[in-house]
Amino acid sequence: MLVGLVGKTNVGKTTFFSAATLVEAERGNRPFVTINPNEGVAYVRVKSVCTEFGVKCNPKYGWCNGINRFVPIKLLDVAGLVPEAHKGRGLGNKFLDDLRRANVSIVVVDASGSTDDEGNPVPPGSHDPIRDVDIVKEEFARWISSIIRRGYGKIRGKILSGSSVEEALSEALSGLEIRREDIAKVLIETGLKDKKFVNWSDDDLLTFSRELRRVSKPFVIAANKADVEGAEENIKRMREVLEEPVIPVSSEAELILRKAAKAGLIRYEPGDEDFEVVDESRLSPAQRKVLEMVREKVLKRYGGTGVQKALETAVFDVLGMKVVFPVENENKLSDKDGNVLPDAVLLERQATVLDLAEKIHSEIAKKALFGIDVRTGRRISLDTVLKHRDVIKIVASR
User: Fold this and answer.
1) Fewer beta carbons below 10 Å: N end or C end of the chain?
2) pLDDT, tens digit (0-9, with 9 covering 90-100), for 106-116
3) Rounded Cα gap, residues 314 and 272, in angstroms
């Protein structure tokens, strides 16, 4: 599972990345601080099943606090973009080349409107953050259309040789990891299914590319700098205008809280609505002031910093992913070494028992006979679609 971070340069993408992963990455109030992509591990929460069964989790990856299980995902922070990047401006299409593997992207924007199109600082409220979202969408669409245009001869040749349009386009766009079924769906939705590819106009190609981006590479909007003056009104307007989920975010606040928790100064986990000071005497007056500012301006106003909510909205709400807990011993809920609920596996919405087996190991999938729903003790077939938070044992031949 790979979540991308994309957006105009100098809006806080790398701060979001550092806050979510605690990976130190270069940050600064200037354009193009990030050139090479940063990759790290973030986590999404799912209500743990351990208390339901009266056991204590022993996760191989991530952690469990007895209420929530934190499941790892990969997070990719790519270079920022400027308008007309598809023509080579700024760092050109580098951000898109790096982002092509992402299942979903979080578009980080400056909700306070304090950076212009080029990423330069301007007075808060003087720039429209909706324009930043539109820029990302348009650059992404024009990148897709440029790939199709460059491969025009091969696509046309395959169609003349008897391939369907979706098959030829799927091959041309294979590097973007776009599913053939998404291409077929978009051809129908745009009315281009029955129009010969050789007769497509430039407008047809761009219309197709815009819709294909929307369907195959969905976005969540992280309205960053939500605590800066003027941001709240912009966020309200963004929610009215944009079709994507818009999450108020303060990446800086999350980074402050995560670092304070790591230093043992406060008790705080990603997604918490508040924090608890461990020992007041260990805080300097400056640290106490900053933490109270975070509490008043961010946590009380928005119910959290928004970083965790943006990640979980992308994974669970937009992609519709689910978490399943596989076990080898259905009585002890453990693996062969006795680790209790060691794994929490992210699966697509329609994933089956066989898909789970494949995720665990290809050899297990080859030998899989059926599954056991641990809650009910019932045998379930390999083609059974699993539910979110299922606990499953895979039975395989020896």
Assistant:
1) C
2) 999 999 999 98
3) 18
- Percent of the chain scoring above 70 in pLDDT: 93
Distance CA 148, CA 53 (A): 53
Q: Which two three-digit tokens encode residue 357?
A: 């087996």
pLDDT tens for residues 178-227? Answer: 999 999 999 999 999 999 999 999 999 999 999 999 999 999 999 999 99
Phi and psi at 72, nearest 5°, equal -70, 145
Cα separation, 326 vs 2, in Å, equals 21
Residue 319: closest CA among 182, 181, 216, 184: 216
Query: What's the mean pLDDT in 11-36?
Result: 69
Alpha helices in the chain (DSSP H): 13-21, 50-53, 94-99, 129-150, 152-160, 165-172, 180-189, 202-216, 231-241, 251-262, 285-294, 300-302, 307-312, 353-360, 362-367
Instruction: Evaluate whether 140 touches 213 at the Cβ level (below 8 Å).
Output: yes
Q: Dihedrals φ, ψ of 228, to 5°?
A: -85, 145
Coil, helix or strand at residue 395: strand
Rg (CA), the chain: 23
What domains sit in the chain, N to C, each tagged with a CATH number? Answer: 2-37+78-241 (1.10.8.470), 251-304 (no CATH), 321-396 (3.10.20.30)
Instruction: Return the amino acid letter for 118.
Output: E
pLDDT bracket for residue 91 (50, 70, 90): very low
Looking at residue 86, what is its pLDDT? 57
Spatial contact of 7 and 107, defined as CB atoms under 8 Å apart: yes
Predicted confidence at residue 24, as pLDDT, reads 67
